[in-house]
Amino acid sequence: MDRIRIVGGNALNGIIPISGAKNAALPLMIASLLTSDTLTLENVPHLADVEGLIRILGNHGVDIAVNGRREHQDGSYSRTVHFTCRTVADTTAPYELVSKMRASFWVIGPLLAREGQARVSLPGGCAIGTRPVDLFIEGLTALGAEMEIDGGYINAKAPKGGLIGARYTFPKVSVGATHVMLMAASLARGTTVIGNAAREPEVVDLANCLNAMGAKISGAGTSTITIEGVTSLSGARHRVLPDRIETGTYAMAVAMTGGDVTLSGTDITLLDTAIEAIRRAGAEVSAVDGGIRVIGHGDAIRPVDIVTEPFPGFPTDLQAQFMGLMTRAHGVSHVTETIFENRFMHVQELARLGAKITLSGQTARIEGVTRLRGAPVMATDLRASVSLVIAGLAAEGETMVSRVYHLDRGFERLEEKLTRCGAIVERISD
Ligand SMILES: CC(=O)N[C@H]1[C@@H](OP(=O)(O)OP(=O)(O)OC[C@H]2O[C@@H](n3ccc(=O)[nH]c3=O)[C@H](O)[C@@H]2O)O[C@H](CO)[C@@H](O)[C@@H]1O
Ligand SMILES: C=C(OP(=O)(O)O)C(=O)O
């Protein structure tokens, strides 16, 4: 199993190219199930989750052609992938595949809309909470589907003639359930109005792509989304939006190690709340042509309290990384997690590096320390693992991160990107 070895203490200087967003690419890829034409996606990141979903879509009958990568001067490369699902080969998404990645459960929306039925295993994904699927069941039921749980699977059946547009208001904001409702309602008869929809940029990206395919969606990015159903969707070409979580992660790394880094190919407006928190912590962050410039001052980090919330609030997917940053702040800060009930697995691992963190319910109290010391640590989930990497970059001596398969789900060429900016980071394959 691969490990990542980090020797901390170097400031980061240079350019880090930001990849296409994992959390946008996954629903966009799934949208290819809605049409018999080709959906072409540009800027698709090369990640374990994307490769996993390619296998899952293949099982449903999607032909996939990957165009070679093109290296750019800043070290970035773009991958264009063509997805064609002439006919759906199988409406079952089996446990062996779906249990590895939560987002693969979302195939339930397009399968139900296009084929009138789906049998999809209950999902897996990061162990950060119970992560139920009640909102998907309620939402699709509102569109007229019969939903039944049987042997660890959801059996979904559309009424004769297909799904029917309806008004449905989510009792709680869910990114995944909003994605699924957008895809399902696009091919329903009549108009659907979704209340309390997720407003994340990845939802807007999916809506834009579906509209390019012929859907009639308005209001994405607000809490009320209206979808006028159409009888069929066509192919389209769409560019996956930049990864705001990767952007925020590297910005926090620079804030922690010090240095001057341009994050290229990204957009500051995707993560206003996180940028504001990083600025309050003492780093200088500005929009520059084609990206964001971050100047960190390493030893002069100020304590900042944050609370995770659905977009546009502080993203839960940056909570662990921000806690890493706060471990070296001058003073006490508080990090409150409101989205997932078990997203503090990084706390005990950060403690191995010398961090002083105490937990009380959903709030962590972090007492900044003057220095962290390298140690062996274990990745427990995707974002927790990268928080250990950035803490390792700022720690004295060697940090060895094990179980890096978590990291490979969501961070493309992490060692390479950091090494190019002066960090000592290497992958050790045992
Ligand atoms: C692949 C992807 O895009 N994953 C992101 C997506 O996950 P995901 O779409 O799974 O997260 P949700 O927005 O659905 O979850 C938000 C909250 O709603 C709850 N919930 C959700 C569905 C449901 O049927 N019932 C229910 O109670 C969840 O347990 C959680 O407490 O949004 C999360 C919140 O921004 C991010 O952390 C994940 O990185
Ligand atoms: C939690 C995440 O992914 P997933 O929803 O696939 O578990 C994540 O991207 O941080």
From TrEMBL:
Gene3D superfamilies: Enolpyruvate transferase domain. GO terms for molecular function: UDP-N-acetylglucosamine 1-carboxyvinyltransferase activity. Cell wall formation. Adds enolpyruvyl to UDP-N-acetylglucosamine. This is UDP-N-acetylglucosamine 1-carboxyvinyltransferase. The modification 2-(S-cysteinyl)pyruvic acid O-phosphothioketal is found at residue 126. UDP-N-acetyl-alpha-D-glucosamine binds at residues 102, 131-135, 172-175, 317, 339. Coiled coil: none annotated. Pathway: Cell wall biogenesis; peptidoglycan biosynthesis. Its EC number is 2.5.1.7. It is found in: Cytoplasm. It catalyses: phosphoenolpyruvate + UDP-N-acetyl-alpha-D-glucosamine = UDP-N-acetyl-3-O-(1-carboxyvinyl)-alpha-D-glucosamine + phosphate. The active site is at 126 (proton donor). Phosphoenolpyruvate binds at residues 22-23. Keywords: Cell cycle, Cell division, Cell shape, Cell wall biogenesis/degradation, Cytoplasm, Peptidoglycan synthesis, Pyruvate, Transferase. It holds the Pfam family EPSP_synthase. Residues 8-418 form the Enolpyruvate transferase domain. The gene is murA. Belongs to the EPSP synthase family. MurA subfamily. InterPro entries: Enolpyruvate_Tfrase_dom, Enolpyruvate_Tfrase_sf, MurA_subfamily, RNA3'P_cycl/enolpyr_Trfase_a/b, UDP_GlcNAc_COvinyl_MurA. Its main location: cytoplasm.
